[in-house]
Amino acid sequence: MSIDLGVLEGFIVRAKRATYVGDGQRAEPSRAGSHDLAFADGVWSYRDSYFGGTDFIGQEVVWLSGEPVWAMNYYGTILRPELIDAARAGLTIKAALSAMYAEGRFLGGFEWNGPHGTYRDASTGGVAHFHGRETIAVGGIEAYALDYAGGLVKA
């Protein structure tokens, strides 16, 4: 199956914007104890499924006509709870990612300053194969970090 990477990336940005960042509707848990968010648009569908809260792990998957074509895994943690809590980290992440998605992308590096810290994202690669790290620094000290990797899924 041939996939237009630009169309795929556009769908991923719309899905991310509509789910976690947009406080989208929760989906039925796909696994015991998971928190799931889902989005669909025509032949494309997306699910973000994660476990935990302050420290969390998850996976995002995109399907094209029912076939999995792209996935990303991630793990995030509060490194310095005396500097930031899960609520302030979440507000910072949502605001920063909202600004990044407004640029029509989710990769390629980004920095955003907010009331609870400085959000930074650094990644290598493109939608077909990538890895990266997002952080929040408070007073110049890294207080939160999330590592992620993903790309195309081929049978």
TrEMBL record:
<feature type="domain" description="DUF5680">
    <location>
        <begin position="48"/>
        <end position="153"/>
    </location>
</feature>
<dbReference type="InterPro" id="IPR043735">
    <property type="entry name" value="DUF5680"/>
</dbReference>
<dbReference type="Pfam" id="PF18931">
    <property type="entry name" value="DUF5680"/>
</dbReference>
<protein>
    <recommendedName>
        <fullName>DUF5680 domain-containing protein</fullName>
    </recommendedName>
</protein>
